[in-house]
Design a protein that fits this description.
This protein has 411 residues and is mainly alpha-helical. The radius of gyration is 21 Å and the shape is globular. The N terminus is likely disordered.
Length: 411
């Protein structure tokens, strides 16, 4: 079996001291373009459900994107590691494009959602395969920077996507948004073929005998990643709670002004861009623990103080801080997994992380739903406290572990 060192050494030797390879840039651009298409399709269906007064339609769309990932991620991740990551990615992108193309043609809402669910299932494979291929085309020296640019690009897609989806939906309807997403998958497939030709594909390690639990086990056992996973889960839970409860709380702060509310959401995405770019700079990209803990702290403090101080002029800079932390944390996590998880299980590990993150998101949506026990403002405050408590717990656990290591008598 190839090792991570033997796979990466030839690329690193050729590119040492050079700029990031064009192949990595092509793959990043294609991925960002595809994410923009995903945003258009998802919001298009949500708007379609809202305009048609479809009962539980919005919830159905969200669940269609969550459940397939949670249930099938371990199996799909093992497929990515067992076979050619390039081939798996291209076949998955083809399935996604065909699913969205079919969703454009069918008339029933529930049929469209079912096809979106199929696309989400294939998306687990394409995302995991892309995660596995990126360090190969970027080279070990440039992987941190590549993760930084990719995360910043995804933030830009999240910033541009919602208003663009609303504008295009008002002009051409949901079918046009679904068709745009179908095309975006074909664009990413073309970028993948350019960035990862068949001659490069042989350098990507394969595991002939993978197990379904390999991904979860790799995340648990990896330095930094396993220790900080509770803090990461808390951050994802917190932002998901705020995504729902914040709709009511922030609209109240804005006195029902939808423009101000939209600016609140854009501010978070805007802050994540410099956070991701800073995390990719030399001297920072290897500081995985600092990036993750600092990022989670920024998320927690931003949400907590935004709930405690219901003033728009205060919330804007707090959301910038929270978004900055979000971007830095995302880059720190990607770099940590690439660095500390064996390359031969990168596909399984990232697919399983997708399942963990979707689980936290789904739980956060439920906890953020309005209820008679806690106000929306209280829910936002709690969402900010959760990551901070998790950080304290992680710090105490790390301290105890280091103390036990120091005081353990030698054999």
């Amino acid at each position: 079996m190839d090792t991570q060192r033997t796979r990466r050494a030839p690329f690193a030797a050729l590119r040492r001291g050079a700029a990031m390879p064009v192949a990595a840039q092509v793959l990043i651009v294609g991925t960002v373009f595809s994410r923009l298409g995903d945003t258009l399709a998802s919001l298009g269906l949500v708007l379609h459900a809202a305009d048609g007064n479809i009962r539980f339609g919005v919830t159905e769309v969200l669940l269609a994107e969550l459940i397939p990932t949670v249930l099938a991620a371990p199996l799909i991740g093992s497929v990515v590691d067992r076979f050619s990551a390039r081939a798996v990615c291209l076949w998955a992108l083809l399935v996604q494009s065909l699913s969205l193309g079919a969703a454009t043609a069918v008339g029933g809402f529930h049929a469209k959602v079912a096809l979106i669910a199929l696309s989400a299932l294939a998306g687990v494979a394409s995302v995991a395969a892309g995660f596995k291929m990126l360090p190969v085309v970027a080279g070990e020296q440039h992987t941190g920077r590549a993760n930084s640019l990719l995360t910043a690009g995804l933030s830009v897609a999240g910033l541009v996507g919602p208003p663009l989806a609303g504008f295009l939906n008002s002009l051409w309807g949901t079918a046009a948004l679904l068709a745009a997403d179908a095309v975006s998958f074909l664009v990413l497939a073309g970028c993948t073929m350019l960035a990862v030709p068949r001659s490069v594909d042989v350098a990507i390690g394969r595991r002939p005998a993978t197990k379904l639990a390999d991904g979860y086990r790799a995340l648990r056992d990896a330095p930094v990643v396993g220790t900080l996973m509770p803090a990461l889960a808390a951050a994802m839970l917190a932002t998901s709670i705020e995504s729902v409860a914040g709709v009511y709380y922030l609209r109240g702060v804005a006195d029902g002004n939808d423009t101000v509310f939209g600016l609140f959401l854009a501010t978070w995405a805007l802050g994540s861009i410099p956070g991701a770019l800073l995390a990719g700079r030399a001297g920072w990209s290897d500081r995985h623990t600092a990036l993750i803990l600092g990022g989670v702290s920024g998320i927690g403090l931003g949400l907590l103080l935004a709930g405690l101080v219901p003033v728009a002029a205060v919330i804007f800079p707090l959301f910038l801080m929270g978004g900055f932390g979000n971007g830095a944390c995302n880059v720190g996590l990607r770099n940590a997994v690439h660095a500390h998880v064996p390359a031969e299980v990168h596909g399984s590990a990232w697919a399983c992380f997708q399942a963990l993150s979707r689980s936290c998101i789904g739980l956060g949506y439920l906890l953020g739903t309005p209820n008679t026990l806690i106000s929306s403002r209280g829910q936002v405050i709690i969402s900010g406290a959760i990551p901070l408590v998790a950080i304290v717990w992680a710090a105490v656990a790390t301290l105890r572990r280091s103390e036990s290591t120091v005081t353990e008598p030698s054999a």
